[in-house]
Write a structure and sequence with these properties.
With 245 residues, this protein is α/β, with parallel strands linked by helices. 44% of the residues lie in helices and 15% in strands. Helix 1 packs antiparallel against helix 3, helix 3 packs across helix 4 and helix 6 packs across helix 7.
Length: 245
């Protein structure tokens, strides 16, 4: 039965995303700022997460919102599921998304994403991609937006990790803004490369901001990785932290 519910959700997910993509493209021609238009992706993210609760029994909670700084910041997210890509829309204030450039080539949806000035990089470009993140990231931060980074670069399987890329931490240290680590267990309920969404509750935990002043990018990156990976392990070790089956 859960597979049937997951299929229903998948169909609704595709339809909803297409509709919101059209709305975004239409709104882009209006005399509105990105901050004003950000209500659209925020609503999209909230709708899809709540729809997952109704259709699949997959709910969520967000903890640590008091840790969000008032000024723009860089948030480093654990990336283990499609779920976190739309949860990011409402968990943190308006932000520029760091993503692979191929995303903005997707008809309608990618075009809509491009209107929010993401930092679209060529992941195979190496050092030049890092420079792009720092250069464009500073521009976004100066404009009053945050920057969202998945330091692992791609979705990783539950219980696994990979080396954290330096670009997010380097941007934060050079711009003099804090880094906020964000952990969650979504990958255990909505696995990568799988349509099945298991029932349960996803916990998103926002960590204390890491002060970048007087620290190197490598030190900031290591602190963020240690906190995120330890918090994920703590979440999944608690009752309800992962599916029963």
């Amino acid at each position: 039965m859960q597979y049937v519910r997951s299929l229903v959700y998948f169909v609704l997910f595709i339809a909803t995303t297409a509709v919101f993509g059209v709305i975004v493209l239409c709104s882009a021609v209006l005399p509105l700022t990105i901050h004003q238009r950000y209500v659209i992706p925020r609503t999209w993210g909230l709708f899809l997460t709540r729809l997952a609760g109704v259709v699949c029994g997959l709910t969520y909670t967000v903890e640590g919102q008091e840790n969000l700084p008032k000024e723009p910041f860089v948030s480093l997210w654990k990336h283990s599921s499609t779920w976190d890509t739309f949860a990011q829309m409402f968990v943190v204030p308006p932000a520029s998304w760091l993503l692979k450039r191929e995303v903005v080539w997707i008809p309608i949806v990618g075009w809509a994403v491009a209107t929010y000035k993401p930092i679209a990089i060529n992941r195979s470009a190496g050092h030049s991609a890092v420079n792009q993140v720092v250069l464009q990231g500073k521009e976004r931060l100066k404009a009053g937006m945050g920057v969202i980074v998945y330091p692992e670069g791609t979705r990783v399987a539950p219980g696994q990790t990979r080396k954290y890329g330096i670009s997010g931490a380097l941007l934060a240290t050079e711009a003099g803004v804090p880094v906020v680590p964000i952990a969650h267990n979504s990958g255990y309920f909505w696995r990568r490369h799988s349509m099945l969404k298991k029932a349960g509750n996803i916990r998103v935990v926002i960590g204390p901001p890491i002060d970048t002043k007087g620290r190197t990018a490598r030190e900031v990156n290591e602190l963020a990785q240690q906190w995120i990976e330890a918090k994920v392990a703590e979440i999944v070790a608690q009752p309800g932290g992962q599916p029963r089956d």
